[in-house]
Design a protein that fits this description.
Chain lengths: 275, 313
Amino acid sequence: MDRPKPEELKKIAKEVRKDVLRMLAEAGSGHTSGSLSCVDIIVTLYYYKLQYDPKNMKWADRDRFVLSKGHTCPPLYAVLGRRGFFPCGELMNLRKRGSILQGHASLLTPGCEASTGSLGQGLSIANGIALAGRLDKRDYRVYCLIGDGEQDEGQIWEAAMTSAHYKIDNLCLIVDYNRQQIDGWTSDVMNLEPIKDKWAAFGWNVIEINGHDFKELMDAFDKAELVKGKPSVIIAHTVKGKGVSFIEKNSVAYHGTAIKKADLDKALKEIEEGD
Amino acid sequence: MSELKATRDGFGEALVELGKTNDNVIVLSADLTASTRANWFRDKYPERFVDFGVAEQDMISTAAGFALCGKIPFACTFGIFASGRAWDQIRVSVCYMNLNVKIAGTHGGISVGPDGASHQALEEVTLMRVLPNMTVIVPCDSEEARRATLAAASHPGPVYLRLGREPFPVITEYKGPFKIGEAVVLRDGTDLSIVANGIMVHEALKAHDELKKQGIAARVINLPTVKPMDKEKIIKAATQTGAIVTAEEHTVVGGMGSAVAEVLSENYPVPVKMVGMKDRFGESGDALELMKYFGLTCEGIVKSALEVLKLKK
């Protein structure tokens, strides 16, 4: 894919944030602040990095994206809709009975590569997809997004050892490091630091970036692709609730809560007028 | 005396056969590679083998990733670590996505013996059969295990194979491919039916002979596939014989006996007695000694048969 200008991605991300807020307000439940923190990461993947074809979804050589933090599926759904995997009209059916858009990421959604929701499993799934690609001599790459609190799960570190042990270099992991989880600040609930050292000690190539800077995001994905013989992890520093001041300020409360319909216009206006 | 062979051996042989015939078959292991017989496949097809170390949860979700790409992974470890330790991974990564992952849990049952309660898996059938999309198979001998493994590879969707460590008599012969979901009547009878699986099938056959001496004609049904259940044969057994004894080397709480009772209570209720582990942990000891101690024997089945006949109207 041609490298877009960061401003172009920023413009798309604004639209996706608005989709996410509208979807959650309509659904009346869901995970607002963690969805907003990872929008820019997902937009960069689907508008710059990933090779795929919505007209041929099962194309064997496509790059894969596994959303391990399955509760923040709204930005993935919004991007998949915008990229043509299904009509955008479906977005307003999030979390409704019979919808292709389940409350946590699922295979029911065209373009979604794995069902997740029970935290900690996505990196292992991504390893399996990457190893299968190696076995079949395919050159696709696999991307996986985990939450920061998700690193509390022991399985993440089991999988981290597997990725390094088998030198899975067609894999790139992204940590949405917004520093908060449902019970509060990660430093209070379960300290993750020194997180960079942890990943390095597990044998990973570590890249640390501002997860809302599109140039840094594109550069990081490109750099990760060049590293051979070990997996790469991008620690993306993000802001939980990014783009809406009253959600940023109450981001823990908005972890598992949808934005209210009454607050929607205010939030959309902030996104529209924001940086 | 028939040949003594463990069901894990039949499984290991089938993996090697599959290695030859199906390039998509891969084998995953969680450090117990020789114990599960996965080493037989590893030694022939090392490029299609992945060891995870002692990390069952990672193994199961990684198997899901392989299956998403069209591979047929067989994930192998001890039954309790597969079904218990990695249950949530089996639930979400495998069954929810209805993926083509095969899980082989060896060292099932009390016959694990001296290792004691921590390693004696008595709960796998219960844990696995509650999961939507899952198929659960408990082969009665190594030959049936071999055929069931081959069948599992050609069956789309998740399959759990419950296998044992100890060598027990081989009582079945090759009579065509294993049919998932099919119960097999091994002895006919009209007074009651004994429904058994795993190594309890051998005990059920002995119980048949013992009951015959007392003038009681017991039908013996081998029920290797607990899920999906061969309801037709089970209901037929109830209508034709009017009483059922189930026999499993497993807890009676939610196991094969419970599954049979569920089918009967909804379709044709008759008295049922369950032979199995009675809601308790095992303990160390010699395999046969433990089987006897916990009543998982011909004598235990005969006792239950006489009891169930008293309940029969």
